[in-house]
Amino acid sequence: MSRALARMVIWRVAFTVPLLLAVTAGMFALATASPFDPIRQYLGDRAQTTSPEIAARIRENWGLDRPVIEQYLDWLGSLLRGDLGESRSLHRPVVDVIGDRLGWSLLVVAGAMVVMLVISLAVGALAAWRRNSWLDRFITGTAYANEAAPVFWTGLIAIWIFAVQLRWLPSGGLTDAAATTVRPTDVLRHMILPVAVLAFSQSSWLLLFVRESLISTLREDFVTGARARGLRERTILFRHALRSALLPFITLLGARIPELVTGAILVETIFSWPGVAGTSVRAALAADFPLLAALTLLATLAVVVGNLLADAAYVIADPRVRVLGVS
Amino acid sequence: MARDTFVLGLSGEPDNLNPVLGYAPDGGSLLFDGLVTRTADLELKPALAVELPKTDGAGTTVTFKLRTDVRFHDGTPLTSADVAYTYQAVLDEKNDSSLRSDYAAIESVEAPDPETVVFHLRYPYAPFIQRATLGIVPKQSLDRPDFNARPVGTGPYRFVSWTPGDKIVLEADPSHWNGAPAIKKLILAYASDDNIRATRMAAGDFDATELAPKAAARFEKTAGLTVYRVPSADYRSVMFPMEAPVTRDKAIRKAISLAVDRSAMAKTILAGAGSAAFGPIAPGTSWYDPSVQGSPTADQAQAVRALEQAGWMPGPDGVRVKDGTAARFTLMYPAGDSLRKELALAVASDARRIGVDIEPAGLDWDAIGPRMAKDALLMAYGNPFDPDHTNFELFHSDFAGQGFFNPARYRDSEVDALLEKGRRTADPTIRKQAYDAFQRRIREDEPWVYLVHLQHVYVVRGEWTGITPAVESHEHATGGLFRNLADWKPAA
Q1: In 3D, which of A126, A124, A153 has the Cα closest to residue A213?
Q2: Contact assessment for residue B303 and residue B354, using Cβ atoms and an 8 Å cutoff
Q3: A49 vs B205: CB contact, 8 Å cut-off?
Q4: pTM confidence score
Q5: B234-267, pLDDT tens digit by residue?
Q6: Predicted complex ipTM
Q7: Is A304 helix (H, G, I), strand (E, B) or coil?
Q8: Is the CB of B5 less than 8 angstroms away from the CB of A101?
Q9: C-alpha span between B13 and B222 (Å, rounded)
């Protein structure tokens, strides 16, 4: 099995290289086609008090006057040497900018994934167990509505309820506004809303999947057999049915990574959370190309690695499984 | 109310904290000091310089003497080499400084001895000293890899930490040359949304904040909070392309100026936090010519008279026509700017009443740029410090059609001469006369129709002495009410 796993990993990594090339080339093409002028965005208000010669000189310094292919190859060359360049708007190395923020993003995303898993498993199983009851209808109804609701809407509602009306939780930021140091308890309190909103907004699909999968498993022969042997319904549900229903769940989880990334972008923006995802919005608005390119790479890698982990977990969990790249 | 930590809720987080790269050039930084600073009356006074500089007879050599008791936050003493480095770094093409245009008059900077800095200018440039508020950085600081993340200055506050997207923490420098500030810890917390800042102000998260007029109204009657409405030079104005068929006619521009209801704009669109504007120089500054006046309310009858005298007669669809040309043009505004959008719609609806058809169009700046030669545009500028700033580039014929410089392509030899005289003369009386004449000439010709001057609105918790509102600029980099926070003291 470990050999099969290794072959899969190698195959995937080999596939990642052309994928990243395609994504970055596409990104360069889009940036060139974009109507936004990076110099204008860089100068901001000052664009209107800056003489055209000076704007032209900055354009030249950034190499924006050269052909796109040349700019792309240049960027790619630096990337291969491990140089991600300097953020144009923040005037700091891209590596530092991302390094400062990546940890906070991972904290929220990891927290949200754990909560999401627990909620969708527990509530999904509950709905399947009590299927067609009012509880089941309430759960599935809420899940469908939540799946349709945009994350920023859910986030603003949560702020309005918990921060403005009840005043239980802070409305944003990493720590209290007056705090001058980063204390773990303070961060924890500020994490609750972003993590909850992200987890809640991403969990409905999984929850519905768990419910469907369990219901169909409960109709299978081995469940009927277990029931015939007089096992308790709860034992059947959790020890037998849930286990076998869980396998495709792992793959689904991997496939959800892109949506988790976009969800994180919105959640970080709403809650002024100092992570990388919120920064990508800023980088895009500022047409800060070096930063945006690095963040896009990071997001692509997150998706590839997420899927790889999910498939690897699948191979480990079920040796019968043959995934792409493993014959 | 003695408290150690003071939290400012601000709207726009700076991209970097380096004055060379464009951070707070007009003295809005508490981390850095300039050679000079401003009083509440916008008079210049020495800061890192011991006295205001001496300018030679030709007006092209400006000499500053420095204080000798100033140290950077890392302990190194400030010398003239740091000052020269700062200005040279701004001018260095390789640094892509967004400020370079403002310092175009400087030919070279030298530091003949540790206490002396000499600026050589390309041409006599009286307003140069207004630009000497630029924060001074230590020499070679741009080569330090972490300077933009951990800046070192000489200002009343030292840098402690920055959580990007959230806040910047500063602490008072007890050994600052101008005395230790009363507020020991200062936190600049960032939230771009007006409603979120208002909520956090109400919740007690912030001790002071800047707000849109409508969002500030709820604090008007709250005990313990004070609302400050600070006048500004920040104007909104309609720029008319002088080479386009309809707007080139002075009668059209005059009629629109008469037909717009400026007081209604100030009352409803600005929620009372603004006043009618008739020219580029703000009332309340010493440069303002009080004879530049007009009626704040609309005068439709006179507007119609002006149009009919010029031959613009009502056409079949209600839009006036002259020699086969309909009085119809487009008024652009930047799409994301709701204030300019509301003003553009108000101008269009006022103009319709006198038979001029204006079509408002919300566009992105990149789309606006190429269209400025033929379509009108809702502009926002205004700087209270020196009338040369922006006006020279906006109205001098040399700059006609150069990007955002003189986008109206306005050409008037009298205005050119006045602007040049104001720039090149050192004598304040002669300068004042030149700019008075300039203001009257612009009011007479109306290449731009000025609508309103904005007020900037702040809410502050607690009782303080030392809060001195000054006429503010369009740009936010001046620090506004908080520019002299180091002088604030709890009221006894």
Answers
A1: A124
A2: yes
A3: no
A4: 0.81
A5: 999 999 999 999 999 999 999 999 999 999 999 9
A6: 0.75
A7: helix
A8: no
A9: 28
